[in-house]
Amino acid sequence: MAWYEKLAIVVGMVLFMECFAWATHKYVMHGWGWGWHKSHHEPHQGAFEKNDLYAITFAVIVLVLFVVGLRWPPLWWAALGITVYGGIYAFVHDMMVHQRFGMRWVPRRGYSKRLLQAHRLHHAVKGKEGGVSFGFLLAPDPVKLKRKLAERHSR
Ligand SMILES: [Zn+2]
Ligand SMILES: [Zn+2]
User: Which ligand is the nearest neighbour of the Cα of 55?
Assistant: First the structure.
């Protein structure tokens, strides 16, 4: 495989994973998988939450993809793309937005601020239903999200 084919797979997978994460978050985690995800919408003590089981599950799946990918390189590069997305997600979502593992950096402008606000608005709704902003790296405009939330509450 040429380097640009590998690069295309990795970049493509990162983009695909954002869509995948959006769909999983909206339809699985806020659907039949709420049992695990609920912990992420509640205040809690301790370093871990039940929701981390999702990260562990995805890590196991990706590990299997890497192993199978030893025989079929495109799959190995796809697994790497998923890992890159997972790394960005852990850094931005867990460390920056939720300040886990002792990180205390709050972005005050630019896209990272928008991303932070969009995800905070996701957490503005405590329950399973009626949430907004299920995606992650592609953050919608916070002003629009607020309007959407306000509309739902006035109904
Ligand atoms: Zn959620
Ligand atoms: Zn969160």
Answer: 2
According to DSSP H, which parts of the chain are helical?
A: 3-23, 34-37, 52-69, 73-89, 110-122, 142-154
Please determine, for residue 142, whether its predicted confidence score (pLDDT) is greater than 90: no
pLDDT band at 62 (very low <50, low <70, confident <90, very high): very high
Are residues 54 and 29 in contact, defined by beta-carbon separation less than 8 angstroms? Answer: yes
Structural domain for 105, as ranges: 3-154
How far, in Å, CA of 33 to CA of 147, rounded? Answer: 27
Q: How many folded domains does the chain comprise?
A: 1
Distance (angstroms) between ligand 2 centre and the Cα of 116 equals 10
pLDDT for the residue numbered 59: 95
Q: Which ligand is nearest to the CA of 128?
A: 1
